[in-house]
Amino acid sequence: MSTDAKNNTALMEKIVSLCKRRGFIFQSSEIYGGCGGVWDYGPLGAELKRNLRTAWWNAMTRDREDVLGLDASILMNPAIWKASGHVETFADLMRECSLTNKRVRADHVDPQDGVIMNYTGAEAATGWKLDRVISVLMKKGEHIESFRKRVRLLIASNAGEAAGKPEEIVLLGEAKADAVEGSIDYHPETGGALGPARPFNLMLKTYLGPTATEDDVTYLRPETAQAIFAQFKNVFDASRVKVPFGICQIGKAFRNEVTPKNFTFRSREFEQIELEFFIKPDEAIEIISGEVAAWSEGADLSEPQANWGWDLWHRYWVDQRTKFYEGIGLGGVLEYYWQTPEDLAHYARACVDILCNFPFGTEELEGIAARGSFDLTAHQNASGKSQEVFDEELKVAAAKLTDEQKEAMIQKRLAAEQSKVKGAPMAEADVRAWFERLFKGNYVPHVIEPSAGLDRMALAIIANAYEETEKTDEKGKKEVITVLKLHPRVAPIKVGVFPLLKNKPELVAKAREVYALLKRHMNVFYDETASIGRRYARQDEVGTPFGITIDFDTLGEKGPELLDTVTLRHRDGGEQERVKISDLLWKLLAEVS
RNA sequence: GCGGGUGUAGCUCAGUGGUAGAGCAUCUCCUUGCCAAGGAGAAUGUCGCGCGUUCGAAUCGCGUCACCCGCUCCA
After folding, report:
1. Contact assessment for residue A489 and residue A533, using Cβ atoms and an 8 Å cutoff
2. Which nucleotide is at minimal CA–C1' distance from A567?
3. What is the pTM of this model?
4. Contact A566, A549 (CB under 8 A)
């Protein structure tokens, strides 16, 4: 491991330690030895998460006119997961390479020709040993020495540091076995013998109903999005909204991750915050507005326009989500990855990953995908229930089109279908049927999906706020000071209230008074133990942005002009200002909300 | 899932077969006129869990669980 990697691992360990010590995040079921890939939020973590949830919910719903909330169940009819494709893609039969443990879908193994080579094991100068039989396919035409080199490399990469350098690994008991043709029992890339086909189900299975038979099987949702799609029509009918509009949801989702890792970053139970923003198909925009607005560098994305197609809506949401992250203090550490056509799922038109810098690497915080009408159409087909909306404006505009104009649109679409990179082109009859519905004002909305993980966001916030500085006191003693530079909006404790000294009843009484004044409006922490400096430090460590100290000036000792004023200390920089008690509330509220 | 590492007090760690330790943190009292001050005292561990070897196990063996690192996976 490089020095950087070691430092980053050490930093991550310090963050995990702080999280436990100060009550942000605990291991689940710790007294029983934990539970893999599951974490609990302690008092401060719960506040932090709640602040993030509120910030997101407000940004999505309260601050907008075009997004509605939903709170759906974790358990759903299992037919949902068949329609969405999750049952299929999350429950593949996989076979594992015995050499490298690379997994491959059982039905995706290409036939291989070559000679089977067996080894009884391997060992390295480092003392590392592999004590099991290795069976590898030497491909047709592969030279024996380059084959051995390749096997050593593969073994080394799987063994990690313990095995040392690949060229120093000794392969034991080499024996040539049979030649094979068209075998599907060896990994296409590595040549390692494949184990038996086993299902790898990433969805958590459970039984709905006490009899627990196979008929009762359902799943804990692996994502919150499907509930939004499944309830799309109900929300639409109940809310007097028109496309474009969105439905957002916050909720738990579950995945049997193969390898939960990086603290809470990849866990088996996690909280998603998702928006499905429904828009008109580009063809509808073309009919209504004459043409779809094109994006160009520097385009104004601040206000949605009627002539926006999916591309501009997609970019708009990337912009909106970026502003959100800036508002909670993550502005400077974001990166963007625009998926290439090869990366994209066949139904997706574009997808941007918003990445964030973590000690363990730059990892995804949120994905913003333009998914076309894939999801609603899938549910429409599987359920037999129409997911179309009727658009009066579109119907009126389409009625003004000539037959030639209509046919031109159809031809344009047919050409586009033919030049698709992924997926089969839509049949001409289906395209014509779709346009027929469109010209009457009916379509299945398309969707832009900004989907984020709340736990990742919380971890990103903590990790990026973590700061250590070394301080030397008068006696030359060095100590490390830890400060969590949390944005005031997300900080679990907004302000600490301290009497300068606890053995002066007047100071204590006044401090209790200030505490009572503020605590109804925000999370306030009262502390009178230990020296004032230590109390500041305790709050710095958990990211409390403000401290209020009641001192002798507050009592009017230095004259009436300072009576009922307090010291307001700012966490970052430690600067202090004198504030009237009567001004505290509005001054603080402006910062923390 | 594979390979490697780790697991002792709330945290960081020392303790290589013979009575369980330190620093920091916590709590109480005293003291303290603004950035982890000082003094006195207290509490805190089935040494991750289980089974074994041994007169005796935190220490040795086997198993297991969790976490970390590297592969792998990541709709």
Report:
1. no
2. B34
3. 0.88
4. yes
Question: What is the rounded average pLDDT of the residues A380-394?
Answer: 96
Q: Closest protein residue to B35 using CA and C1' atoms?
A: A533
Helix intervals (H) in A279-366: 282-289, 310-327
In the predicted model, what is the mean pLDDT of residues A477-483? 83
Give the phi and the psi of residue A557 in degrees, each rounded to 5: -65, -35
User: Which amino acid residue lies closest to nucleotide B28, measuring CA to C1'?
Assistant: A529
DSSP A302: S
**Cα–Cα distance between A554 and A241 in angstroms, integer?**
55
Q: How far is the CA of A513 from the C1' of B9 (A)?
A: 38
Distance in angstroms: CA A14, C1' B19: 35
Q: What is the pLDDT of residues A129-186, one digit of tens each?
A: 776 777 888 888 788 888 888 888 777 777 666 666 777 778 888 888 888 888 888 8
pLDDT score for A293: 96
Contacts of A571 (CB under 8 A, 6+ apart): A483, A485, A539, A540, A543, A544, A545, A546, A547
**Smallest CA–C1' separation from A264, nucleotide:** B67
Q: What are phi and psi of A451, to 5 degrees?
A: -130, 120
Nucleotides of chain B touched by protein CB (<7 A): 1-5, 7, 10-13, 25-28, 30-37, 48-49, 65-75
Length of chain A: 593
DSSP A535-572: HHHHHHHTT--EEEEE-TTTTTTT-GGGTTEEEEEETT
Residue A20 CA distance to nucleotide B6 C1' (Å):
18
A553 closest-nt by C1' vs CA: B33
Question: Please, is A1 exposed, middle or buried when counting C-beta atoms within 10 Å of its C-beta (0-12, 13-18, 19+)?
Answer: exposed
CA A576 → C1' B61, Å?
A: 62
Give distance CA A36 / C1' B64 (Å): 14
Check residue A441 and give its pLDDT.
97
ipTM of the complex: 0.93
Closest residue (Cα, C1') to B74: A257
- Residue nearest B65 (alpha carbon to C1'): A33
Kindly state the average pLDDT of the residues A304-326: 96
**Banded model confidence at residue A1, pLDDT cuts 50, 70, 90:** low
Above pLDDT 70, what percent of chain A? 94
Q: Indicate the pLDDT class of residue A422, thresholds 50, 70 and 90.
A: confident
Q: What's the Cα-to-Cα distance from A11 to each of A4, A15, A128, A139, rounded to whole Å?
A: 10, 6, 29, 45
Which residue's structure tokens are 């600490």? A496
Q: Which residue is nearest to nucleotide B36 (CA to C1')?
A: A534
- Across chain A, mean pLDDT equals 89
CA of A30: nearest nucleotide by C1' is B66
CA of A535 to C1' of B26 (A): 14
